[in-house]
Amino acid sequence: LPENAPGDFFVDTTCINCDSCRQLAPAVFAEGGGHAFVHRQPATAADSRHALQALVCCPTGSIGSLGDDRPAEVMDDFPLAIEEPVY
């Protein structure tokens, strides 16, 4: 998508605007024009981890990374607590 900030993480045109990525990584993803996009590339290790969590959770596989990121590294983070005791 043209709105994506330059860098490794991106959202493609298959995004259905489900809000998952914005919930998991609000510092990285934003909403625009009926879809999500990368409004800022991850600036910290925590931002990168949250972006990878969003990549793993994306129901349409619309989030990608051109970097050397390893999504499998965040699999043990799940299930994520939403609010105790909800996961």
Can you walk through the features of this model?
This protein has 87 residues and is α+β, with helices and mostly antiparallel strands. The chain contains two helices and four strands. The protein has helices at residues 20-24, 45-57, and strands at residues 9-11, 29-32, 35-38, 63-65. Strands 1-4 form a two-stranded antiparallel sheet. It has a two-stranded antiparallel sheet with strand order 2-3. A hairpin with a 2-residue loop joins strand 2 and strand 3. The radius of gyration is 12 Å and the shape is globular. The N and C termini lie far apart (31 Å). The relative contact order is 0.23.
Notable characteristics:
87 residues; two-stranded antiparallel ribbon; two-stranded antiparallel sheet; globular; alpha+beta; 2 helices
Radius of gyration: 12 Å
Record field, number of beta strands = 4
The neighbouring-strand order within the major sheet is 1-4
Give unreliable regions as ranges.
none
Helix segment tally: 2
Quick take:
With 87 residues, this protein is of the alpha+beta class.
Secondary-structure blueprint:
Elements: E1 9-11, H1 20-24, E2 29-32, E3 35-38, H2 45-57, E4 63-65
Antiparallel strand pairs: 1-4, 2-3
